[in-house]
Design goal:
alpha/beta; Rossmann fold; about 40% helix; arsenical resistance; Ptyr_pPase_sf; Ptyr_pPase
């Protein structure tokens, strides 16, 4: 079974959403993880917009790319989901893998009131869903 790792800086939103979508879309065809360079707590906006889609990510635990590496985990695909303009900050997971980059804005950088930030998080969620759908078809 191919192993897929989604990576972003904090493993608090984008990589968590991508992980949830690939699990939903691909079922048991892939083993899917997500991790970050500097993991923090889950972004409440990400949890809220994913719940709107019927996907509960509230119990997912942000984890460190370094911890996965120390555990000896290897992946067939490592997919970074950091913003294009901040790509230099995207962590790199070592090993023999196919590396892909799917850039998305960071929900943590959204500004405005709750409704404005929620609308931005929905936009990012929908972009991730669309990209992961294409990815699932390509990897199948």
């Amino acid at each position: 079974m191919p192993r897929v790792l989604f990576v972003c800086t904090h493993n608090s939103a984008r990589s968590q959403m991508a992980q949830a979508y690939l699990r939903q879309m691909a079922g048991q065809r892939f083993q899917v993880d997500s991790a970050g360079l500097e993991p923090t707590q889950l972004n409440p906006l990400a949890v809220e917009v994913m719940a709107e889609e019927g996907l509960d990510i509230s119990e997912q635990r942000p984890q460190s790319v370094f911890e996965l590496y120390r555990q000896g985990n290897l992946y067939d695909y490592v997919i970074t989901v950091c913003e294009s303009e901040r790509e230099s900050l995207c962590p790199v997971f070592p090993g023999i893998t196919k590396r892909l980059h799917l850039p998305f804005d960071d929900p943590a950088q959204l500004t405005g009131g709750h409704d404005e930030r929620l609308a931005g998080a929905r936009r990012i969620r929908d972009q991730i869903k669309q990209a992961v759908g294409r990815l699932a078809e390509e990897l199948a």
